[in-house]
């Protein structure tokens, strides 16, 4: 099967402060979180990372808060606030895969001085993960608890309104379970940046912005030319990247439905498993431009090749 399972690389273990995404939090009834305005606090090209950068460099605050003011991404304007007080953990809100929050509903919080960088969210941790998590009140406390471990994972408890924090050197999350930052999922961070790349922060901003644009166009889950397909028997957050133009078992679409931001239901278009078509000989079919094309049929079972399809012979 020609698929690409999404995975993330470990980051180098170095000591270098950076910006760490700390989750989505519901906007208060006032419509905006408390904080100080940086220069140009409202900007059509503003993103969470640039907001964090401004708060760190202009005002030297510990936290930055960013949100869009309109549900429509084509007219939404980004807003930025800087603060030394973190968000209330009981206002934690579901977010999307790379840390995006729902427009006009929630804001993204960043720690502007941290030794950790946000990787993504995962629906599950691996079977090898140690059962050594600790309960903390906030993402900030989790990252401070992990200190210099290569990886930090935080899972929000909606009932207790706190976080379960797991600190490890191996990345004890399941790459296949990469998904939205919903209740019960794990927010994952890696420690440090490569000090040999002083422009790493800028490059990361560019990568994050590119991923956001891909997200808006096609969910941004897979490289160009591949489609995010749900995994058979997997949880609602599991997906794999498939070339539906050539994949025999997902020809023309996802056989289990396309993945759509944590939607537990299969979505169209549904593809075809070419290998399961009746009358085709073993190895006698290919997927070309999303269409199953047969070239060998089980003649002993009464099938014949007609226009690249195996058709049952009519009884004489």
Automatic annotation (TrEMBL):
Keyword Cell membrane recorded: no
Ranges for domain Protein CPL1-like: 239-310
Keywords: Signal
Range of residues in the leader sequence: 1-17
Alphabetized Pfam families for the sequence: CPL1-like
This protein's name: Protein CPL1-like domain-containing protein
Organism name: Kwoniella heveanensis BCC8398
């Amino acid at each position: 099967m020609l698929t690409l399972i999404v995975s993330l690389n470990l980051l180098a273990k170095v000591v270098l402060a950076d910006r760490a995404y700390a989750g989505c939090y519901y906007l208060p009834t006032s419509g905006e979180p408390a904080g100080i305005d940086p220069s140009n606090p409202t900007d059509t090209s503003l993103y969470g990372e640039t907001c964090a950068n401004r708060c760190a460099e202009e005002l030297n605050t510990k936290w930055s808060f960013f949100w869009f003011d309109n549900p429509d991404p084509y007219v939404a304007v980004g807003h930025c606030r800087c603060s030394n007080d973190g968000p209330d953990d009981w206002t934690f809100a579901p977010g999307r895969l790379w840390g995006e929050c729902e427009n006009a509903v929630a804001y993204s919080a960043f720690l502007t001085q941290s030794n950790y960088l946000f990787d993504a969210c995962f629906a599950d941790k691996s079977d090898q993960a140690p059962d050594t998590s600790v309960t903390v009140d906030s993402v900030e406390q989790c990252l401070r608890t992990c200190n210099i471990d290569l990886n930090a994972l935080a899972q929000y408890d909606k009932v207790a309104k706190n976080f379960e924090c797991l600190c490890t050197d191996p990345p004890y999350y399941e790459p296949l379970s990469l998904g939205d930052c919903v209740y019960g999922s794990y927010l994952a961070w890696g420690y440090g940046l490569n000090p040999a790349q002083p422009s790493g922060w800028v490059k990361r901003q560019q990568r994050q912005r590119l991923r956001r644009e891909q997200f808006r166009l096609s969910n941004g889950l897979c490289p160009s030319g591949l489609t995010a397909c749900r995994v058979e028997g997997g949880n609602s957050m599991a997906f794999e990247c498939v070339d539906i133009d050539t994949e025999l078992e997902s020809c023309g679409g996802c056989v289990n439905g396309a993945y759509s931001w944590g939607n537990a239901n299969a979505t169209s278009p549904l593809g075809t498993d070419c290998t399961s078509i009746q009358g085709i000989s073993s190895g006698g079919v290919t997927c070309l431009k999303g269409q199953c094309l047969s070239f060998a049929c089980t003649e002993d079972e009464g099938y014949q090749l007609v226009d690249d399809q195996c058709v049952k012979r009519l009884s004489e």
